[in-house]
Design brief:
- The protein is built from 15 helices and 29 strands.
- The protein is of the alpha+beta class.
- An 8-stranded antiparallel beta sheet has the order 11-10-16-7-8-15-12-13. Strands 2-3-1-4-5-6 form a 6-stranded mixed beta sheet, with helices on both faces. Strands 19, 20, 21, 22, 23 and 24 form a 6-stranded antiparallel beta sheet that branches.
- The radius of gyration is 34 Å and the shape is elongated.
- It starts with a helix and ends with a helix.
- This is Translation factor GUF1 homolog, mitochondrial.
- It is a peripheral membrane protein.
Length: 663
């Protein structure tokens, strides 16, 4: 602990001193040149002879005082010119031994996109006048949220020891929802930059991405980013990486993508430490698809990495998983814009356009081969996409669709893109999971909608999906997060201290408890310092029941939910109270009930709108008043028997929002 506290201020102090010295050096450099320029112009108006002699003496004094500085400036200018020229020549071919394919993996918001921007700028791939923050993030949504949603690729050219190298960067998303996309990107690379925030340390998604990289046998280069922050602790973070991940951080690179520190060291490390692709250009073509998108004019555009063989423009290619064949109309590289080339060989990354009309014909993870010279075996790792999209009709909300998502972030992104790009007004219900119902007759039914749940007499048990969740948190918030997991029916498995101040807590948790506001509660209770990573482990039998809502004795199916028996009362009470506030009053009394089968567990009532029939009775016998009240009660009774309560759309929306909070 003492070492950590000592090293951090010392490192920051050295960094700040170096930065101040560099600024002073730049200032002196600018001062000398500005003075020369100003003084020469000033003397031009006075005679030529005196001016020339003064200029000669001035140059001699400057040569004596800062001759080495002038050489340094010329060298730097030369390096910039060489780099810019190399960036423009990035379409030129290089030997396979000079190709480096790498990606950047990191937890969300650890500076991955900023580092990619600096690499593009340093290699001259993007001109300074065209540069902007998050250059590879094309969507406005990515820039607003500061996250990477869609992976991008870029080809760079870098001169190392007077020899050109081709660097293919694949920028991957950092969120757990897009882990399959990350895995396909890693399969297209030989190395990875592991970017870790020097102030936050190892996070949950950092571990998940590192394990994916290790499964693909990638060379991992640790990069400690954001060392310019006051709270940066690079020594502590290096120790965390070594203890948690098991990577040797003796040669870790200290960098600040924002300030441009360590970028040259990163480029040198990519060339030195990441192995080149295997020279398999003579084998039958095998190319891995790691991304694709639909263009309304050109069809599906496929991003791929050539593993074996060579592909040329005009070749007839076959997609091995889908069995479809097309002619390669366009072939090119991503740098980062699309630049067409005539051929690509083993080790290179590029794009393909073949007038493909359906995205299903060119799926992520599929293998491209020649139609006439097929490869014997496709590349491993492909997973068939499971469609989670079906039409559904609701009596409350009308026609719609039931969609499956990879996670809550994926759901939010899809919803916002539909609203922005297609101007749709969407209504989303509370997220649910798929349950398995074991019936008495031995049949197993998958149920994603409470209305499809078999009757209690026909079902033997209900199983719900469980996930293994790992929470990484500072030690100050361990108790609060354990309380959160226990309240969500979590089963404690393990807790260990990964460092002196950080702990890893592992729970098994029902997926239904996590798809609500679990992540928001996690961040709120830990003040934003905790992170989580989860994986599906299977189905487990649970004591689940169907909670129905009755309004005026009529069951309202859109409001039915599947909840755990221990939470049924609290959920039922919350729903009935909310409906009482939202449903308008009728001419008769309206009961609102939450039931489990025929048993009422929570009830509220909306009082009737009552006309004052006694207003005209300013006096007289009491029997006259009773007669009028009795007549009114009989009318209310007949009205209730034939009356129907219309639940307004706003009430459904409010209840759906409430379900997201209480379920």
């Amino acid at each position: 602990m003492a070492t950590t506290n000592f090293c951090r201020p010392k490192f920051i102090h050295q960094y700040q001193n170096a930065k101040i010295q560099q600024q002073q050096q730049n200032h002196r450099n600018c001062f000398h040149f500005d003075t020369n320029f100003y003084f020469s112009n000033h003397l031009k108006s006075k005679g030529s002879g005196g001016a020339q002699s003064v200029r000669r003496r001035q140059r001699q004094r400057q040569r004596q005082r800062c001759g080495s500085l002038r050489v340094h400036c010329q060298t730097a200018a030369t390096d910039i010119e060489v780099t810019a020229r190399a960036g423009k020549d990035r379409l030129l071919k290089v030997p396979i031994s000079n190709i480096r394919n790498f990606c950047i993996i990191a937890h969300i918001d650890h500076g991955k996109s900023t580092l990619a921007d600096k690499l593009l700028q340093m290699t001259g791939t993007v001109e300074s006048r065209d540069m902007k923050e998050q250059f590879l993030d094309n969507m406005d949504l990515e820039r607003e949220r500061g996250i990477t949603i869609k992976l991008q690729a870029a080809r760079m050219r870098f001169i190392y020891e007077n020899e050109p190298y081709c660097l293919n960067l694949i920028d991957t998303p950092g969120h757990v929802d897009f882990s399959y996309e990350v895995s396909r990107s890693l399969a297209a690379c030989e190395g990875a930059l592991l970017v870790v925030d020097a102030s936050q340390g190892v996070e949950a998604q950092t571990l998940a991405n590192v394990y994916l990289a290790l499964e693909n046998n990638l060379e991992i280069i640790p990069v400690l980013n954001k060392i310019d922050l006051p709270g940066a602790e690079p020594s502590r973070v290096c120790q965390e990486i070594e203890e948690i991940v098991g990577l040797d951080c003796s040669n870790a690179i200290y960098a600040s993508a924002k300030e441009g520190i360590g970028i040259t060291e990163i480029l040198n490390a990519i060339v030195q430490r990441i192995p080149p692709p295997r020279d398999t250009a003579g084998r039958p073509l095998r190319a891995l698809i790691f991304d694709s998108y639909y263009d309304p004019y050109r069809g599906v555009i496929v991003y791929f990495r050539v593993i074996d063989g060579t592909i040329k423009k005009g070749d007839r290619v076959l997609f091995m998983a889908s069995g479809k064949d097309y002619y390669a109309d366009e072939l090119g590289v991503l740098s980062p814009n699309q630049l067409q080339v005539d051929q690509l060989y083993a080790g290179e990354v590029g794009f393909l356009s073949a007038s493909i009309r359906s995205v299903a014909d060119a799926r992520v993870g599929d293998t491209i081969t020649h139609f006439n010279r097929k490869a014997e075996q496709s590349l491993p790792g492909y997973k068939e996409a499971t469609p989670m999209f079906e039409p559904e009709t609701s009596s409350a909300m009308g026609f719609g669709f039931r969609c499956g998502f990879l996670g809550l972030l994926h759901m939010e992104i899809v919803q916002e893109r539909l609203e922005r790009e297609y101007s749709l007004s969407l209504i989303t219900t509370a997220p649910s999971v798929v349950y398995r119902v074991n019936c008495i007759d031995g049949e197993t039914v998958e149920c994603s909608n409470p209305s499809l749940l078999p009757e209690p007499g026909k079902r033997r048990s209900i199983e719900e999906p469980f996930v293994k969740i790992e929470l990484l948190t500072p030690k100050d918030y361990i108790g609060s997060l354990m309380e959160l997991a226990q309240d969500r029916r979590g089963i404690f498995k393990e807790m260990k201290y990964i460092t002196e101040n950080r702990a890893s807590i592992i729970y098994e948790l029902p997926l239904a408890e996590m798809v609500g506001d679990f992540f928001d509660q996690l961040k709120s209770r830990s003040k934003g310092y905790a992170s989580m990573e989860y994986s599906f482990i299977g189905y487990t039998e649970s004591d689940l029941i169907k909670l129905d809502i009755l309004i005026n004795g009529d069951r309202v199916e859109p409001l039915a939910t599947i909840v755990h028996k221990d939470k049924a009362y609290s959920v039922g009470r919350a729903l009935t109270q909310k409906l009482k506030e939202l449903i308008p009053r009728q001419m008769f009394k309206v009961p609102i009930q939450a039931t489990i089968g025929s048993k009422v567990i929570a009830s509220e009532a909306i009082s009737a709108i009552r006309k004052d029939v006694l207003a005209k009775c300013y006096g007289g016998d009491i029997s006259r008043k009773k007669k009028l009240l009795k007549k009114q009660a009989e009318g209310k009774k007949r009205m209730k028997a034939i009356g129907k309560v219309d639940v307004p759309q706003e009430a459904f929306m409010a209840v759906l929002k409430l379900e997201k909070e209480v379920l």
